[in-house]
Amino acid sequence: MQADVTALIAAANGGDATALQELFAHVYGELKLLARSQLARRARPHEPTPTLNTTGLVHETYLKLVRHNESALHDRAHFFALAARAMRQIVIDHALGQATLKRGGAGRQAVDLDAVAALAGNEWSPDALLCIDYALGRFEKDEPQLAKLVELRVFAGLDLEQIAALQGVTVRTLQRTWRQAKAQLFLALDSA
Amino acid sequence: MADRTRLKDLFDQAIEVAPHERAAWIAQVCGDDAELRAALERWLRADGAFEDFLQAPPAALTQIVAAALADGAPQRFGAWRVLRSLGAGGMGKVWQAERDDGEFEQRVAIKQVAYPTQALMQRFRQERRILARLDHPNIARLIDGAVDVLGVPYLVMEFVDGQAITAYANERGLDPHTRAKLFLPVLDAVQSAHSQLIVHRDIKPGNVLVDTHGTPKLLDFGIAKLLEDDGGAARTRTALRALTPDYASPEQIRGDAIGTPSDIYSLGVLLYELLVGARPYEIAGTSPAAIERAVCDTEPARPSLRMQALGGSSAAGARDLDAILLKALAKDPGHRYASCAEFSADLRRWLAGESVLARVPTTRERVQRYVARHKLGVALAASAVLALLVGLATIAALYRQSLAAQAEAIRQKNTAEREAAAAKAVRDFLDEDIIRAASPYLKTSAQDITVREAIDRGTAKIGVRFKDQPAIEGEIRAALGGVYMQLNQYAKAADQYAASGKLLEATLGEASAKTRYVRYASAVLLSQQYQAEKAHTLLQQLDALAQPGDENDAALATMRDDAWDMYWYRQHDWNKEEPFALRTIADFQRWQPDNLPGLAVHKANLVILYTSSGRLADGERVARGIVDELHAHGDDATVGYGLALSMLGRIEYFRRDYAAAEKTSLAAVALLSKIQGARSPHALNALYIVVRVRMDSGRYAETLDAAREIHASFAAAFGEHSVEASQNLVLLGACEYLAGQRDQGIRDMQAGLAGTVAMNPSATDPLEKFFVAGNYIDYGAGKLEAAKALVAQLDMDSLRGAQPDNDWPARLDALRGQIAYLDGDRAKARTLLQPALDKMVAAHSPVFEIDRTRRTLEQASAAK
Hints:
The structure holds 2 protein chains of 2 kinds. Chain A contains 9 helices and no strands. Chain A is mostly helical. The N and C termini of chain A lie far apart (43 Å). Chain B folds into 6 domains: 4-49; 80-159, Phosphorylase Kinase, domain 1 (2-Layer Sandwich), CATH 3.30.200.20; 161-360, Orthogonal Bundle (Transferase(Phosphotransferase), domain 1); 362-508, no CATH class; 513-589, no CATH class; 783-864, no CATH class. Chain B has a 6-stranded antiparallel beta sheet, with helices on one face. In chain B, strands 7-8-9 form a 3-stranded antiparallel beta sheet. At the A-B interface, helix 2, helix 4, helix 5 and helix 9 of A face helix 1, helix 3, helix 4 and helix 9 of B.
């Protein structure tokens, strides 16, 4: 298993798209697995509502998959980007499953304006995440860096300081980039 | 696309600039690059809109992500072990489970919402206690409720092993009476919950199961409310998405407040489906607009017409059952049964063969409800649509009557089918071709479809819709003629009445009252369109077909007398017109005794007649009567009220009370614009008086905009070369001339005058000739001969007929005196001008006419 991952990472770094996909599948599976065990550990009656530490989860996944291969994966930032992408996939698959029940699977195409308003006010729902996914799809080709930043913040739960450390930029710089990303996100939502 | 790198660079800089300095900063850095500037401004707006977005990751987001990561069937809920999934619905998931602690064996259903909110958690705790109190043999009990490991609440309910009530009844082939009896415990159960103010909100076959003992049980009482997300704006969407729209009440679909009447409606749909085998309406599509249209607008078909057999029930029995179901299914909660107990009592009466309390609403009530429901969509021309709806409802009623008469030899079932078909054709036309097209929810583009367009489109489909029903087509076209008349679209009205007249003549005969009614309406329009000879010929033809009983037909009498009224009005023969104007009012009162706004319109015609013939006191008396009467009945937002105001303004103008005239006329303009649109002829006629007031009191510059508006609107409505457009081009020219645009004014006056003469010499108002002559004389030189010709055509009678001013002799003498001066006859000029000036000053004649008279007199009196 460990060897497989090492090989995959090497191939992915070499530009092998299939390897990247397989690596992605590993991250995806590992994230789900770790999340369940994390929740199960807290599953005791009358305990206050447990909240999953998504950032911790990503770190845990990183450690588990890559710990012994630090030389192979030089760039932690790449891994976190990959994990954020996997988290996005997991969340969207799940939300779509819900949405399919509600409105015949049309959820992904429709971004409604109410949801945009809800997002601006930090009201979160599966629909809101579907909207973000859709909006990201609209601008990630033109602005891959900005889209990645949104992914890291929304789906991997990283804050700006963590991301700044990860990417080796100052928080101040990242704050400016974040404002650009937010504006792009809003425009993509608004023009849908 | 502006250069992205530069854009991002500027964006970074812009957010550092203080907001109040930003506009200037942007203007400076963008310079002439409008594209860059627009893009930058868009970015900054987006930045502002998303200012707070994700400042800190909210708990709700983490929870959703956590739930997604942990997705998968739970093994257990507290002491309950999951046996299998029972399915997933809009609200969440359902599992079957059993007690796991070995205490006792019990099977339960566990329901869980997908994503809880804070508000839901709070309500969950409150409602759980209330729901636990619900104890009724026909209601599945709430056993337990708690939160799972993720903090998501779940409910443990009594598990009912059964099938949906509809499937149960169908599988056993139950007859209608047995089905109704099966439904009674359901009503009792809901009544019991309602008495504790618990509303179900989601009654549907899947929630009304019949268990293995044949006992109906209601599931999920109050769950819909408990699980409903109340995220403010999200409420409507949630309601729409989460509920089964087939059984939802109109108020639920609209997202309005929900109470016990909502359940009564859903029970009505369920009982309808149980008895008829189909739901009252089909929802075509999943869009909110489609759902809203079906639930809020579609009148259910009468159930008895759709039922195979009523188990030997009598005609009265069928009617009573219709009444029960339609009452439960009333769109307005206030029209439904006040309680399930009443609903149940009526159903029991029906089962016992007794007469029920509910009754089928009359056609008129249905139409009124329909109109009330469509206020939003039809506000633009509510009166016109009301006319159409009443017209169509009348048609449907008439058609049913005639069918009933013919039906003696035909089997009852056959009649019912034909009746249903006829009613359906009319209803479809109304719903699909007109109302649906006008619905604000069905905009096909950014452009609104107006009621006018909707009616135009509907009209275009009549031929197909009523292909083999010439009698109905004739009636519909007559109704549309009336609608177009109210919309002031006279050419279209004339087309519809003409087509209707032909159809009715062919099907009912030329002597039929209905045929003659429609053809009299055609005569009104012929006169209206200045086709005096044709109108006269038609009127005489129709009068020759008169029958002894005609006076008893108030509708026919109204149209006949109105047609003659219009004819003599266009002839300016006030003496001949007056009796017809009075008779039309009396006819209409007999025809529609409660229709005060309609009556006011006919009375306004009398005011116009009195005013035109100089009987200002009579005109004022009638106009004030209209205003007072309508005001007393709260009908002051009606066309009749606006017309009366408009005429009062005109009377004040004729009395040269300029201040009052302007005020009253502006009020009339505002009201009529609101009701009929800013460019409706009635509003423009009131605006015309405003223009005249300003012109006559010397405020020339203030006339121009309004005069242009009037001309352009009439040109748009009636055509560039119509009499109406030409007359108002003369007015515009006069305003321009007086405001100092002399050459333009002369050109417009000349063109306008030529236009009226070309269209119809008899329609050329002496007033226009008088205006033009006065301005031509003032212009002098090349226009003097034309002015002389015009003055020669003017006489006192026709001037008085056009406008009842007492100073016409003096003003005409003033024109003649000015001509004499220009011809060099100074003595004659002085003889005419001096007395004319004295009288005009005393009479407060238009200031420019006084000025011109005085100036010419001074010139004629000056030493040579």
